[in-house]
Amino acid sequence: MRTLFLLIFVAAGSLVLSAADKVAVVPDGASASGPFSPGIQAGGTLYCSGQTGRTKDGKTPEAFEDEVKAALDAGNEILKKAGYSVEDVVAVQVYLTDMELFSRMNAVYTKFFPQPRPARTTVGVAKLVGTSRIEITFTAWKRQAR
Questions:
Q1: Which of these ranges, 3-12, 87-96, 109-118, 130-139, has the smallest mean pLDDT?
Q2: Chain centroid to CA 59: how far?
Q3: 37-93: per-residue pLDDT in tens?
Q4: d(Cα 138, Cα 125) in Å, to the nearest integer?
Q5: Do the bridges between strand 22-25 and strand 51-52 make them parallel or antiparallel, or are there none, so unpaired?
Q6: d(CA 59, CA 130)
Q7: Cβ distance 28 to 38 under 8 Å?
Q8: Which residue, 100, 92, 44, 88, is CA-closest to 72?
């Protein structure tokens, strides 16, 4: 019994990540000056912080479809910097300030992600940063070389 407990304890300990196992991912031209990293790679998983639809000059496009594309493109920059692609995305979270925009978001989203598309959650929220109407987060995974 003691041996079984020891084996379980050792196996569980090998699943714990240390700070050294986490790597910040900051796309070229992005800032890591806030209280978060644009992306964190831990093992074969990449966690991307929420991206709003602001353009590189910090403005929110008037057309909602352009805002969605800008948010997806910003997430894609994090993916590329870490050596991932949209094909590696396994989960997406979408936050909308107006659920009436759902079908318009979906029209842009379905052109961005190939089949099979990632698992997704879409929720309506009261407010996002500034005038943003959408924020999107990605989680990507790929097998690590041994």
A1: 3-12
A2: 21
A3: 999 999 999 999 999 999 888 899 999 999 999 999 999 999 999 999 999 999 999
A4: 18
A5: unpaired
A6: 10
A7: no
A8: 92
